[in-house]
Amino acid sequence: MANKGPAYGMSRDVQSKIEKKYDEELEDRLVEWIVAQCGSAVGRPDRGRLGFQVWLKNGIVLSQLVNSLYPDGSKPVKIPEAPPTMVFKQMEQIAQFLKAAEDYGVVKTDMFQTVDLFEAKDMAAVQRTLVALGSLAVTKNDGHY
After folding, report:
1. Other CB atoms closer than 10 Å to residue 139's CB: what's the count?
2. Cβ neighbours of residue 60 closer than 8 Å, sequence gap 6 or more
3. How many CB atoms lie within 10 A of CB 60?
4. Under 8 Å between Cβ of 127 and 23
5. Which of 15, 27, 32, 79 has its CA 20 to 30 A from that of 8?
């Protein structure tokens, strides 16, 4: 993957607009929901967009979240013993979460792309997906959202 320098011109303007959509209050509510749903073993992120991104980046917390919405014995995402350290394994774990979330009922228009989270391109899209997942969990009476 090529190294990318700072964005200029229109690219910077577009990225700036995307970053403005990120909601720090929503981040707090999502963290509280994830911890309530998965247990305190998932830990807590540092405050802010970067801390939230780092917390979710390897896909383990997301996988535990979606698995917590299913009854025992029918977990859709396999979680490795040790958190993945290789980039492609982490991205694969995120992709498994996205597939499980879609199977759960989250519509494609509410889904983020793997790079939105992995490269922090659009963390607001990640928030949208988690809100949609939480709303479905409440509707199905599967979660603590």
Report:
1. 11
2. 79, 83, 84, 93
3. 21
4. yes
5. 27
Give the model confidence (pLDDT) of 32-77 as tens digits: 999 999 999 999 999 999 999 999 999 999 999 999 998 888 899 9
pLDDT at position 145 is 64
Determine the Cα–Cα distance for residues 53 and 48; give it in Å rounded to an integer.
Answer: 9
Of 28, 35, 33, 69, nearest in space to 52 by CA: 28
Domains of the chain: 24-138 (1.10.418.10)
Alpha-carbon span 108 to 101, nearest angstrom: 10
Q: Taking the CB of residue 114, how many other CB atoms lie within 10 A of it?
A: 17
The single-letter DSSP state of residue 89 is H
β strands within the chain, DSSP E: none
State which amino acid sits at residue 79. I
